[in-house]
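Hmm, how's this folded?
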Amino acid sequence: MSIAMLTATRKQAMIWGLIAAVASLVLVGVVSSAGFNSPRNSSVPLQSLRVAVLTDALFDDGGWGSASSDAADMIRNKYDIEVVAEDNVSIADIEATLERYAEAKFDLIIAHGVQWGDPSVRVGQQFRDVKIVVFTGLVESQNVASIFPKQQEGSFLLGALAGMMTKTGVVAYVGGEEYPNVINVFEGFKHGAKTANPDVRIVGTYLNDWDNPPKGKEVATSLIRQQNADVVFHVADSSGRGVIEAAEHEGVYALGAVQDQNLLAPKAVLSSFVLDVDKAYDSAVQSVVNGTFEGRIARPGIEPFKNAPGDGIVYIAPFHSLDAEIPSNVKSRLNVLTSDLLDERLVVPERLEAGVQ
């Protein structure tokens, strides 16, 4: 072989070697970015696990915020681990608050509220070793997961109940703000009401204020007096207390959200759709401890009762002292609809944009 041919062969070998090296680097990058064999997905010993629970709601609101506080207490007591909880975080401070806890090297941050989604993804990109779970979130990345419950299944059942119990033919809803998760709840409510009573009229509004009980009471009173609504459903945090007060004062039924709110007005709150937040938070802790955490959006649906076997985390509260006021045919229809949801014979679609009432 001539010197010229040998030189050409060596150059080709060097070129192909360089191409192979670059390809290997690209492949490693792809595998790493997908999270395969990444040390960041390894388990964290339970005894050393540090958890932060953060929300812009109020822990004493009797609903959304209270459910978060109760769940934080539950995992703290169940596992005897460090759990720090902070409420009333302003929307403007969400990202800075997440950064603060990430810098403090908390292993798991549970962000309670859909508006924590995008800030969680940005902070997660900066702090790859922290796991973030957004409750009622719609985001996902390598170290950020969301739990977006099928709340529409719970509100569908409340809507069916309202449609069957109304005497005026008008039912109402009051929301805190027009967030996608709240729209989804009310779309499920409308669907359920129309399924049970095609002739029912549905009226509703948003307060643009989650923590203003007087405003909630004023708006609900108007819906009752001016629109003739005799069943009022709220998803409005502490403003929802005002909605319940209005229903109680006007002698109509109220339907609660997130927690069983019958204690707020035993003679008015007919039922509530309840989120099994304890079960959701516990699953987040277990995923980090067991090394099974996945950066994805989970959509758990209905369950027959609190902490029932399976993945469901949405259920309907009992009627308590109002049980005798529910006709037997209404209870039977509600039981059938619940069974149909559990067995997936009935599907309530997820709707993140408002439809026609």
